[in-house]
Amino acid sequence: MAKPAPPLLPIYTAGYEGRVQDELFDTLIAAGATVLLDVRAVPMSRKAGFSKRILAASAEARGLRYVHIQALGTPKPGRQAARAGHAAEMERIFAAHMATPAAQAGLAQACAEAAVAPVCLLCFERDPHMCHRRIVADLLASRTGQDVINL
């Protein structure tokens, strides 16, 4: 008799808007995430602790593996549209971006990460409905069958 397949790991998403680093890490660890997938095109932040180098070092110190997948970030015109409050335009720009070979390779990398460990997609916006990471998470889920949980 064949062994049943193990249950699929969820895909988590989180925004760091309004959070401090320790609160974010505590939330991820409590949920069971072990890999922080940074899906920002530009992994820099004016918010202390959330620029790439310090975020990566701090995550690793807390036992989280940090992976930056730049190709899954929103291109500059999409970020400008989002800042201007044009969500539909941002989504259109991001959808076109996701059709590129680089973005498809990034998505494949994220799928591979999500297949072996509980991942959390990270971007700035607290509300996943206002952020491109929701689209990335939905694309991952459609390929892998995993559930998406917004933290």
Using DSSP, what is the number of strands? 5
Largest sheet: 5 strands, parallel
User: What oligomeric state do these chains adopt?
Assistant: single chain
- Secondary-structure element series: EHEHEHHHEHE
Strand content is 5-15%
Question: What is the level 1 CATH name?
Answer: Alpha Beta
Structure description:
The protein is of the alpha/beta class and 151 residues long. The protein has one domain (11-150): Alpha-Beta Complex (Protein-Tyrosine Phosphatase, Chain A), CATH 3.90.190. Helices cover 46% and strands 14% of the residues. It has 6 helices and 5 strands, in the order βαβαβαααβαβ. A 5-stranded parallel beta sheet has the order 3-2-4-1-5, with helices on both faces. Helix 2 links the parallel strand 2 (35-38) and strand 3. Helix 3 (76-83) packs antiparallel against helix 4 and helix 5 crosses helix 6. The N and C termini lie far apart (38 Å). The model has no long low-confidence stretch (mean pLDDT 93).
Primary descriptors:
alpha/beta; five-stranded parallel β-sheet; 46% helix
Q: Which secondary structure elements does this structure contain, and how are they paired or packed?
A:
Layout lengths: L10 E5 L5 H11 L3 E4 L13 H10 L3 E4 L7 H8 L3 H12 L2 H16 L2 E5 L9 H12 L3 E3 L1
Parallel strand pairs: 1-4, 1-5, 2-3, 2-4
Helix pairs in contact: 3-4, 5-6
